[in-house]
Amino acid sequence: MNQERKLSFFLPPISPVKDANGKNVTPTTLVPHKELTLEEVWNIVTGSPRLKKLTEAAAAAYGDEKEYRRLKQSTLPYVTPCGTFSYRRSDRLLAPSGLSILDLDHLDSREEAERMRRQLFDDPFLLPELVFVSPGGHGVKAFVPYDLGRTSDVKQNAAENIYWLMEYARLRYGDCSDKDKGKGVDYSGKDLVRACFLSHDERALMRVKTPMG
To answer: Cross-referenced Pfam families, in alphabetical order (predicted)?
Structure first.
């Protein structure tokens, strides 16, 4: 199986929930609920009935940008792919996971997202360990590994690998980019503490490593 990569798992909301008068009624979740392995994340994405209902509700609102964002930010759980944190801030990193997140957004259809899910998974350079379709059904999220031992500076190592991942994705998948539509690579993934919303995808792809010999 995959090496034991650990991520922080956060319950919603990712931003304050406000009432009709603009008053905060539910604060932002900044302290993680628990740590998860990548396999546990895959199990939630593929098999959680509750996440399935929440994803369906968010996807149904995809055409309404404001409502879709509200549902996504207020109802969906999320993880920090780059590692575990004691608090959702880049200077509170506990341990790196050796993973970067690649997020392709605003694809033309669910069908295109599903094709891109397989294309990313099969990319011989990236070799992502987990790939699933985004909450709205028009994007893909890929958890891409990198070498933790390349430098002794953990944060610098992560930042450099995130940068090169984004550059490679821009060049390799540039044909799917459309600045006017916001289509293509989401560069906000460069943040070390970047959150990744979980969404139901029963066909999410996870790379399984078999023992040698």
So the answer is: BT4734-like_N (PF08800)
